[in-house]
Structure formats: C-alpha cells, structure tokens
C-alpha cells in the first residue's frame, strides 16, 4: 500500500499536484488507474519465466471477496478485545507520513553523534550532564532520569533542573531502566519521542509533550524553532548551547537507526493514537504448531528465528495514515463526540461494522463519519491462504485447497507475512495454512552485494530471457543455488543453462529422428527378464537411479542437487555414452524403444526446471498425449536398478576414457586405428570387457583389441591403470620416439620451471603472511597439479627409452 501510493504521488508531483489538492476520491481514482496499467507487470514476468499457475484464479487483496474477509476479521478481532486503539510510541515515516510496524522500520548502523549537554540545577551552580543522540527532542523533555543504584547521582534524585533553551523546570527522577554505562548515566526523558521514555512517562505519570509535526518539522511547542526541519533544528540548538556554554562536547557514536522500508527515510519515534492488534494470544497456537512439527522450516535454522520473534512478539500497529488500502471499518458519531461521550479511555461513540451504519445505535444520529486511516497492507495479506477462496463462506474450493502444502518465500518476510499467516489460519480456520515453509536465499551480484534498483546492480529477468531464454534463466539459478543460500549472479552464469538447454534440444531431436512412427513403445515387448544387452540394462539402471535421487532431492528441497543430478545423467551418461553406444545398434528396435523410454521419462523430470523446451519436445514424441505440464511424475521401477551393474559399467567407461586420454596425451592422430591390450585381474571383468568389445573398438578407433588375464606390459607402451583392467597401447610404429622424446623433455623442463616458481612463492614468509587465503590455496592447488603432471611426463619418457 505504501509503495503503491509513493509511486503515484511521485507521478503527481511531476505534474505539480499532490493528493491533498486532488482529494481522497480523485486520488484513489488515480491509484486504481495506475494499478490497471501496471498491476499485471508481475503476472507478465511470472508467465515469461514459466511459472505453472492456474491463471484463472488470479486474485488481488483489494478484490471484493478478499476485502469482505478483511472487514470480517477486523470486526471479529475487535469483538474479542484483540483490536484496540491507544496512544503509544510508534515508528513514523515523515516522508510517507504514516505509522509503520516494527518490521517495516529497518534498522541500519550509522555513524551518528553523541552530544553532551549541561542541564543546570535550579538551586546552586551545579549541573547534570546529559548525553543524547537527538538534541532536537530536548525541547520536549519533561524530566531527567538516573538509576537509583548510581552513587554519582543519588543526591540529585527529587531535585529540579532547568531545561536549557526553553528554561522550563523539570524533575530529576530515578528508574532502574537507565543504563549506568551509556553516556553519562543521565537520561533525558521525552515521552512523546522515544519508546523507553514513553514507558518511563507512564510509570512516573509524566505528561508527554510533542514538539514535531508529521513531516518532522518542529511544531509550535518548539518555540522559536517552530517550522525548522528536525536536523536543521539540531544544528541550531547545538550552536545556541555552545553560545550559552551549556555544550560540553560531541563524539562519533555508531548506533542502529530505523529507516522506512519503502522510502528509506529515517524513522521518527512518535506518540500517536493508532489501532493495534494484541498479538500474544494469537502467537501461542502458532508457536505450538511449529514446536510440535505441524509446520517445518527449510532450512531448519529459520525455526529458531521464527520462534524467537514469536515468543517476544509485540502488539501490531495496523493503522496507516495513507489513502490507498482497506479503510478501517470504524465509524464515529459526530453528535456523541461533540457531546463528549467519547472519552479518552472508553470506546463509546465508536461503531465497528463491516458496512457503514445508517445511524448511531446510541443516539440515533445519522451524522456518521468513517475513520480516515487504512489498514496495514499485511492485514489483508495475512489472510491470503483462505481469503482467496471467499472465506468466511464455506465452499468446495476452500475445502480442497486449504490447507495447502508448501510456502516458498524470503527470509525478510518471515515476520511480515509467514508468522502472521500461521496465526490467522489457526485463529480463523482452526488449521495451519501450510505444512512446509521453504526460505530461499537472497539474489546478490557477483561481488556479493544484494541486488537493488537504488544501487543499479540488478539483472532484469526479462533481459536474461531475451538473451538466453527462460529455460536457461531458471536452470542456471537453480543449479548454482544451494538450499536456502544466497545466489551470486552475473550474466555469464546463465551460459550454464543455455548450454544445457541446447544440449537437451539437440540430443532429443536426434533421438526423435531415430524413432519410427510404427514403433511399439512398450518396453515389455522387447525386454523379458534379462534379455536386454548390458548397455541397455545399464542406461535403464542409471535412469531409475537418477529418478530416485532427483525425487529424494526435490522432497528435501535440495533443488540444486536435483538439477545437478539431471545434468549429470542427461549430458554425461545419456548423451556422452548411451547415445554413442546406440549408434552402433542403428535400426535395432530394442535400442529405439529404450531411447524413447529414457527420453520420455527424462523430459518429465526436467520439466519443472526447463518447462518450455521440454513441453515442445514432448509434443513431438510419437503417440500424442496430454500436455507435459499436467503429466504425472515418472514412476520409480526399482527392479531396473542394479548398483553392481552400474559399478561394472563405470569400469568400462574408465577403460574407454583411458584409451582416449592416451591418444590425446601422445598426440596420436584421432583418425588412425591403433592396437590396445587390456589386462584384467578378475574373470568377471574379462567377461564384461569381452561383451562390450565391439563398442570399445568402435569408440576408441582400434584395429585390434586383446584382452587377457594378468597380461605382461609390452615394451615401449603407453599405459593407464583404471579399476577394471590395465590398459596398454603399443607405441612402436605409431609415433616418432626421438621427436616425442624432445617434445616431452621440453614440456618437462617448462613444467619444472613453473613448479619451482610456485614452490619458491610458497616458501616466502612475506607472501604467506600478506596474500589472501584464497590466493595461497590456489597456488597450493597449482603446485599439486604441476607435480602430478611432471611425474606423468617422467613416466612417459621412460616408456619410450630405446
């Protein structure tokens, strides 16, 4: 509400207008027009990002049904005595000119000043020295206070001091709330401008004196300083006090100061008559619900934060002095008020009603006027889980959708919204609104600074969608964000998602081209028992293992782990290996069906992460079906999972990779067919290698492959030692030994120089004491890599010694 009104008021200011000039009715017409033009912006962005919502159920807190729920709740709480009106210190925004709740007043550490001022005693030539951060409020002082245990000031309790500047006599009182260690231990008491002072004022029956206007200028009670801005007044007062030799000193003082969460103006504590909700009775059931596990927070650390706030909860100031929002359903009888029936502590003459009464129920007068304030935005939002379904009316939608399952939100609104929704749900429906609360991290730039429009470091999601695609945006953010952790974003990081989306598209299109229209996609027709080839059984095992792990990660809200699992399976197992194996069985119906099955189930798993491309591909699968977005999650068929098979096949992959690495390491022409020898230690490994021999030969471009148990290493051979079998590649006739020796020797010498340089740096005490930790660790990592490479080069040189 405050944010929307701020935007419209800024637009009016550019036209030389303000809300007071327009009047309430005309101003609200302007706000509604703005809402009609811009209110759909967020919905448009959500749709562009692929949020899978039922858009026919879009609701707005100012809709008629939701507004009815707001009025109903206010009336019910008032009847229970949980809503009341009173004069208390509240957070006041001079820019927005409205009260704020404690949660809307964000505290920031600032370098302020602590001013030391003499308050002369009425009798004698002594004084009390007061330290304050806000000299301008001294004009509203009604006492000075010391701690009764403070031996320095016991003799002054009960005496009178002269308030500087205005020369008003004020008493010296004693109270245990005074901090002996802060400043001088003497506290100026300004009940109208400080929450602690207000409590002191109530305890000691001191009459508060307000010296500020709503815009934080000084009012008539400030005397000659009336009309000055609060900070201008501060400077003028300090100068006056210096002239009168009542100013002792000032010093830098770092302290937390509240600022408006919308316009960032420094908040002013102000005595004001406002409407409040008593929160402790509402908080108790909401505390119990979390303690008993009916609601759980993910990550779990937020449970403690929630409980700490709830167990120390303060009453909620719900009235706002703005015009946009739900008008408070309180009416006043002018006649009763004029007759003085409405007392300060009584609520006679106040009518709380969902609709405007025709006449006063007490005196019958028709002179009824509504309270000008509106309700805090969050007063409508805390009802959202059930007000969206036309509560308090009983209906099928409400029964079906309430309570819901999971709330996904940010940590900064745990108090604004999450806690209040839980309290409202339990109070008005008797049940919690959700079972899980997933708290996501904050989006930061790549330097770690929180993204903010005011700082100019934001990344517009729509710009990323235009450059990389919505699927790339979604997948990139998910895969780089650990559960509940902040995410550090830069445009380059969206390349992860773009590259993966391209891989999905290209691989899927390839698979689709291999499928024949008349193919029977029922795997059971082709697979009876263990009739499937080893490679087919492996990919099915990996598919269902990935499905098991991804499902488990999703259920635990570890979305980045789920995304990583899918990435690993699709790119490195399906594409890098099975599709390559499948090309060697071109036209085989079983292979086609397995490709189809794996793709079909993988698209279902990928859809929540990458909705647009997967939906397009799904629609191109043979045998048309319902849209992917409403298709069920794949069913886990555990009988296909074999961890032993996966381990065995991993061994084969290591063998193929080892042969390919040797080719690369020794600069062997990739087109040249070579010989390879595999020496295994276990007969079962030999059987697997024999079964997959055609694949190994084809994928490694081998003219021959010899396998045997515990074979000797031939002379002049390159070798590798994967788990399943030792790999030997005879080099004679393939490479020029002398030329290769010169190349390896040069590379070894270069590597030794680089290693020496790093070793010298890591022995330098000056470097180790001054360099950042991450730089030292990077050098240590480089040292280990160089040492490993150097060792390998030395081994290679031995292999070609003639």
Task: Write up this protein.
By secondary structure, the chain is an alpha+beta fold. It has 28 helices and 25 strands. The strands form eight sheets. A four-stranded antiparallel sheet has the order 2-1-10-12. A four-stranded mixed sheet has the order 6-7-5-8, with helices on one face. Helix 14 (414-428) links the parallel strand 18 (406-410) and strand 19 (436-440). Helix 8 packs across helix 14, helix 16 (470-479) packs across helix 17 and helix 26 runs antiparallel to helix 28 (773-799). Residues 342-346 have low confidence and may be disordered.
Features:
802 residues, alpha+beta, four-stranded antiparallel sheet, four-stranded mixed sheet, 28 helices, elongated
- Neighbour order of strands in the largest sheet: 2-1-10-12
Overall 3D form: elongated
How much helical structure, as a percent, in the residues? 40-55%
SS content category:
alpha+beta
Give the termini separation: 85 Å
Mean pLDDT figure:
90
Instruction: Compute the number of helices.
Output: 28
- What's the number of extended β-strand segments? 25
The largest β sheet comes out as:
4 strands, antiparallel
Strand content: 15-25%
What is the CA-atom radius of gyration, in angstroms?
A: 37 Å
The low-confidence parts are 342-346
Helices and strands in order:
Layout: H1 2-14, H2 19-22, H3 24-38, H4 41-48, H5 64-79, E1 83-93, E2 98-100, E3 105-120, E4 127-132, E5 143-146, E6 160-163, E7 168-174, E8 186-189, H6 195-203, H7 230-243, E9 247-260, E10 268-277, H8 280-291, E11 296-298, H9 301-311, E12 316-317, E13 319-320, E14 330-333, H10 334-338, E15 350-352, E16 368-370, E17 374-375, H11 377-381, H12 384-387, H13 396-401, E18 406-410, H14 414-428, E19 436-440, E20 443-445, H15 461-468, H16 470-479, E21 487-489, H17 495-514, H18 523-526, H19 534-555, H20 559-582, H21 589-606, H22 611-618, H23 643-665, E22 674-680, H24 683-691, H25 693-700, E23 702-709, E24 717-720, E25 725-730, H26 737-763, H27 765-770, H28 773-799
Parallel strand pairs: 5-7, 11-19, 18-19, 20-21, 22-23
Antiparallel strand pairs: 1-2, 1-10, 3-4, 3-9, 5-8, 6-7, 10-12, 13-17, 14-15, 14-16, 22-25, 24-25
